[in-house]
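The freezer alarm interrupted the setup, so I double-checked each line after restarting. Inputs confirmed:
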Amino acid sequence: MPTKSAALEQEMKLRSAAPKKHRRFLRYLPLYLMFLPGALYLFMKNYLPMSGLIIAFKKVNWRKGILGSDWVGLSNFTYLFKTKDAFNITRNTLLYNVVFIVLGTVIAITIAILLNEIRRKALKQIYQTVILLPYLISIVVVSYLVFALLSSETGFVNHTILAAFGKEPVSWYTEPKYWPYILVIVHIWKTFGYDCILYYATLVGIDHSYYEAAVIDGANRWQQVVHVTLPSLLPTIITLTIMAIGKIFYSDFGLFYQVPMDSGPLLDVTSTIDTYVYRGLIRLNDIGMSSAAGFYQSIVGFILVLLANWSVKKIGGEENALF
Amino acid sequence: MVEKNKSFQVVANAVMIFLSLCCILPFVLLIMSSITDENELIRNGYSLLPSQLSLDAYRYMFKSGGKIFNAYLMTIFSTVVGTSCGLSMTVLMAYSLSRRDLPGRNAMAFYVFFTMLFNGGLVPTYIMYTRYIPISNTPWALIIPSLLVNAFYVIMMRTYFTTNIPEAVIEAARIDGAGEFRVLLTIVLPMSVPMIATMTLLIGLAYWNDWKNGLYYLQQNKSLYSIQVLLNDMLRDVQALKSGMDAAAAAEIAATMPSTAIKMAIAVVGVLPILIVYPFFQKYFVKGITIGAVKG
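Predicted 3D structure, all chains:
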């Protein structure tokens, strides 16, 4: 009887599957255990606070706890977007990031190409080591360095550089018009070495025969850069740029808060979403407004990551996308 | 052609030397300001070649340095504990994810990766650490929030394992009867020295340089301040003094605040260990960050 034997076979299969599955699980148990500590930590660090995003829709009352607090709908958001702050911090965060991405990429690639052209191995090594130095120090120490340069009474710029040209000293920490430039310079100074090394590593990997072929075709150095070097760098440029666009709604809190020393007159050009959330939460203790700004940052930031990745998939093909 | 090449080399080197100076001179300025005589500082400002040197700042720091010494200990404590715990957790996680035969591996990798795409932000995190997992104002505040495991580092390390350690090697060890922990310790780790060195440097650097955890979670316990948090605090004192709202308060701050040179001296002490250790790790560091650029 074929039907009976088929049923029996099925039964046998089911019976043996359970212990097999069990054994398989036991075999991999150590690997799951290795995964566990980190997973628990990430759960606490990242997943638990995600649920806390609901705070943006509540009026927090500590006696009732977060879950027990009253819902207030969108009132935290209407309050936030009524102020001119909302526009200001969005504009600052986006514009600074766009400038950082464009200028940072151009500078890092230029220097990487230059570094690659240098013949003396020892010199190359020294340059590589030195340009990474600013990347290694904390933004607090960077704030001290900037202060040593820009302090109005004792700063190096006012005392030595401007004095040498016979110019009047500038009160840097109260003049907003200089800060967009200062912040861009400080950021690029701190990060160009790191980005440069990333591009340089890709450059070193380019097959030399491409250059030889280009030389035979009569290409000069500039043409080699345009037709061989840049196309080879493209995947790295795309990867780093999508990662940067994914973070375009975020800013380096230290750069915008510590470097200008939280100076009141500069706030228009130095406040970003991150400094705004910090000020609202810790200095003003305004949970409603800061959580609304934080929610806005998380959600729009997430949408931007997905959009950036999606557009790369559409334009550059599956292999260039991050996920 | 040769002539042209030579002049190009000169230009390229000149540009690189200029950039290197831009990277080094601010540090020289910092060190010089810390050994400049206080009166000279007030008269001529910070300068690369001060006419009057003095080690008073360092002398004062060592003599009255209870606060500074304590902060230094906190920095070392958080760096050592944080780096060793963080590194272990990162290695374990990355190794399990690197095993192609592990069932559920893709879902697990996504669980890690997703934390890079989306997060709850400062407000819920702050409330969690101050109200529900009360580590604020304890030494844990310097270690636990945000720095222990970084998803990007986990993925970077997994990529290193999958591209540098042949599956056959692990398979052979398994057949010989070695357990997973033993495989990791005796085979995988010795083959991953550059990556481990980079990771130690990256995580160690993050702890050594961290000031945000102290700023957020040590507001009521200044005795636990690490050196960076202390530096950050002193920076803001200058600010309070400068915007000078209340004359009495400003005078009080001025009286208790260390002098300008001392501040710079503390900053020097804060960066010096990095400047000393970095050249030894440099080779690994450059190799390591380039692995990070490879998509995971």
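Quick read of the result. Residues 1-43 of chain A form one domain.
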